[in-house]
Amino acid sequence: GGSLLYVPPGKWLTGSFNLTSHFTLFLEKDAVLLGSQDINEWPLIDPLPSYGRGRDAPGGRYNSLISGSNLTDVVITGNNGTIDGQGASWWQQFKKGHLKHTRPYLIELMYSDTIQISNLTLVNSPSWNVHPVYSSNILIQGITISAPVNSPNTDGINPDSCTNIKIEDCYIVSGDDCVAVKSGWDEYGISFGRPTKQLIVRRLTCISPTSAVIALGSEMSGGIEDVRAEDIVAINSESGVRIKTAPGRGGFVKDVYVKGMTLHTMKWVFWMTGNYGSHPDSHYDPNALPTIQNINYRDIVAEDVKMAARLEGISGDPFTEICISNVTISMAAKPKKIQWACTDISGISSGVTPKPCDLLADQGPEYARECQFPTDTLPIDEVQVQACSYKKQYL
């Protein structure tokens, strides 16, 4: 009973537009949607309630190229068609400080359920590429995302206050984090109180020289829990997995499980930051301390690495229950003198080279064990991508 919009081969210029429920957007091979460079084609909308303001500037934000709210049963797919945000002018204006409002994203769906985004190429987003927010039952599969590695804030996929998400078989080249998991910013995220949980990331390939392969935060004030990432490949990226938070964030990051990473040419393999200091305004509560616990990494091979880890918790609010096992890190030709920098954390390690810091007590061969990785199945794992096709019909 739904409807389909078919985009044939060719270049098609469009401003921001909204989707409807029970709807499929299908981009044929060699079809290219081009985001308009006329700023009047991008309506202003309110800031997200869990952020309190725009991410780039106080006040509102430009509507995403493809957007929707309170939808159900939406498919954005194709035969590897392309969505091109033509973001260069946005990047230039942002860098010059000329924008009064927050840049648009390529795709943003809010307060929605049962979403599929698959078999597409996304290029040159003005800012974040894919942003499901306040939504559930989301399947993202077979997406290629590309932006210049010096383009500002061109995150790949940012699940934000969402439940039951699966990201599989994606290739991302980004000027920011390839996958960034979020749930609101300081007092606004705490008040909104909607975590991101039950997230699966599989078979991700990432290139991000200035950011993380997978980032948790820094906007995590509604909480992040039950994140499962496996079979990850990264090349020339800043860090493998990064947790970003700060006093004032509140919230939590807990029950994170990562296994099977292969990393080439990295600054850090592991990075946790407890002093990521950006705040939406001066009204945040500095006593709202985040909880970071039960973080598990295992079965990781990394080469050409400058420094194994920077694990920096918060004084009086340590990051706890960190587990790292079966990890082999080969250092770069000119590595940092100190390979593990650890403060205000606690946990254990087993079978890790080079030897971790003393705060990650090595269990020794007689107590060697693997860090946890869940064996149960999340509901989204039962959902398979819908194969969509279009056949021309002649009268």
What does this structure look like?
The longest helix is centred in the first third of the chain and has 9 residues, at 88-96. The protein has a single domain, classed as Single-stranded right-handed beta-helix, Pectin lyase-like (Pectate Lyase C-like, 3 Solenoid), CATH 2.160.20.10. The protein is mostly beta strands. The protein has two helices and 25 strands. Helices cover 4% and strands 50% of the residues. The chain is globular.
Strand content: over 45%
Unreliable stretches: none
Q: Roughly what is the average pLDDT, rounded to an integer? A: 97
Total helical segments: 2
Distance between the termini: 23 Å
Structural class: mainly beta
Shape label: globular
Biggest sheet descriptor: 19 strands, parallel
Helix content: under 10%
Question: Could you name the key traits of this structure?
Answer:
mainly beta, 50% strand, 395 residues, globular, Pectate Lyase C-like, 19-stranded parallel beta sheet, single chain, 2 helices, 4-stranded parallel beta sheet
